[in-house]
Design a protein that fits this description.
Ribosomal Protein L25, Chain P, 2 domains, seven-stranded mixed β-sheet, 2 helices, four-stranded mixed β-sheet, mainly beta, RNA Polymerase Alpha Subunit, Chain A, domain 2, ribonucleoprotein, Ribosomal_bL25_long, about 15% helix
């Protein structure tokens, strides 16, 4: 899936003064760093859909350019986006990036009292731009017993995609939450004698 995003060229020295524009730069191995600006609302809408793992086609330069969002800088004061880096991908050439994991299905082990702990939420991959997935599915239905777990080596990758993380890295584990049992303090013989003496005194006074 490719998402279209209109942009405008800008001078490197030109400061963005309008609130509806974001300063950005486009660059790549064979693409000289080019300063651009992008409409704030358009980018936020696109970024919400595409994230960092979907190819975006920038339109507004001499020719359309296919890119990935490489970096987004937020204002430490207001929290809004102030700058974006777009990385140009080369058609037909393998690239390295990362994509989110999408957990699907229900783990049968939950019925046994197990709790699924998702410890990995994205993986690093290599693939060609045309094979880049928006996410990779991880099926939780394989977690049947309290001893089961899912590791990187268990993930089924789409065609043309290779995960570069360690095969032994944990993706999802099963945990058992044990209820804390509060033990009652043992009653000593002295406590019993004191209690009997107290009752005897109360009866005598009555």
């Amino acid at each position: 899936m490719t998402v279209i995003l209109p942009i405008q060229p800008r001078s490197k020295s030109l400061e963005i003064k309008t609130a509806d524009q974001i300063a950005a730069v486009v660059y790549g191995p064979k693409f000289a760093a080019t300063p651009i600006s992008v409409n704030k609302k358009e980018f936020e809408k696109t970024f919400k859909t595409a994230g960092e793992s979907t190819i975006i086609e920038l339109q507004g330069l001499e020719a359309p350019v296919q890119v990935l969002v490489k970096d987004v800088v937020f204002s430490p004061i207001k929290g809004g986006i102030v700058h974006v880096d777009f990385y140009v991908v080369e058609k037909g050439k393998e690239m390295a990036t990362h994509v989110p994991l999408h957990f699907i299905g229900e783990a049968p082990v939950v019925k046994l009292g197990g709790v699924v702990n998702k410890v990995l939420h994205e993986v690093h991959i290599t693939c060609k731009p045309a094979d880049l997935p928006a996410h990779i599915d991880v099926d939780l239905e394989v977690l049947v017993t309290l001893e089961d777990s899912i590791h990187v080596s268990d993930i089924k990758c789409p065609k043309g995609v290779k995960i570069t993380d360690e095969a032994t890295d944990a993706v999802a584990l099963v945990e058992v939450i044990k209820e804390e049992v509060v033990e009652e303090a043992p009653i000593s013989v002295e406590d019993i004698e004191v209690e009997k003496k107290g009752k005897a005194e109360e009866e005598a006074a009555a």
